[in-house]
Amino acid sequence: MERYQTQARTISIAQGGVMRGVYGWMGGGLALTALVSLMTASSPALLQAILGNRILFYALVFGELGLVIAISGAINRISATTASALFLLYAAVNGLTMSSIFVAYTSTSIASTFLVTSGMFCAMSLYGYLTRSDLTSWGSFLFMGLVGVVIASLVNMFLHSSMLSWVLSVCGVIVFTGLTAYDTQKIKQMGNAGRKGAVLGALTLYLDFINMFLSMLRLFGDRR
Predict the structure, then answer these.
(1) Exposed, middle or buried: residue 65 (CB in 10 Å: 0-12, 13-18, 19+)?
(2) List of residues 6+ apart from 87 with CB closer than 8 A
(3) DSSP, residue by residue, 144-190
């Protein structure tokens, strides 16, 4: 019995260490995104260069997608330093594209939505970490929901339907709220995966948070 308790404590300590690393990198990534976004929004010339040039804007968007694929797909082949650098680069590039929200929404609604999203994220991540329920069954449902949101969003780029946009935002909040708990539990179960594992976990939760935030902003943000 004592041996079992010792093993349980060892596992718990290891899991706590992993999650501290994940949250540390995620927090750093979010701070970098916010800093770059604010600096870009405060520079009319830079903002015009990004938002006024659709080719550049979409190049940045696809560049972000490429970075996510590179980190996720090559995590076992690249060094921890490279993985960290790519994650920070992604966070910075995302800050450039997210500067557009300061044009579309008031600063007050952005700040209030960020606080609400932070509370929701913390609550769901804490649930995913502490619950004894196996959330594996959520995976297929959430993945199908994510695919549906992505496909419908691409279609709506041509339809420009405000109703469909509203529905997608509601679905986005639901899907990414669920993914926060699901992904947290998956990351917790990784064990001691080192810095590369912490960076990959941070990227996963970073994406959950950003997408939840944007969905909430589209629903409740005050437009300029």
Answers:
(1) exposed
(2) 25, 29, 71, 199, 202, 203
(3) HHHHHHHHHHHHHHHH--HHHHHHHHHHHHHHHHHHHHHHHHHHHTT
- Answering whether pTM is above 0.85, one says yes
Gap between the Cα atoms of 115 and 121, Å rounded? 10
Domain count, the chain: 1
Query: Are 187 and 19 within 8 A, CB to CB?
Result: yes
For 186, what's the count of Cα atoms within 13 Å in the CB-facing half-sphere?
A: 17
CB of 101 closer than 8 Å to CB of 40: no
pLDDT tens-digit profile of 115-130? 999 999 999 999 999 9
Q: Are 190 and 19 in contact (CB under 8 A)?
A: no
**Which domain, by its residues, includes 73?**
2-220
CB 97 within 8 A of CB 63: no
Rounded to whole angstroms, how far apart are CA atoms 183 and 201?
8
Contacts of 16 (CB under 8 A, 6+ apart): none
For 129-182, how does the pLDDT look when each residue is reduced to its tens digit (9 = 90+)? Answer: 999 999 999 999 999 999 999 999 989 888 889 899 999 999 999 999 999 999
Can you tell me the distance from the alpha carbon of 33 to that of 102, in angstroms, rounded to the nearest whole number? 13
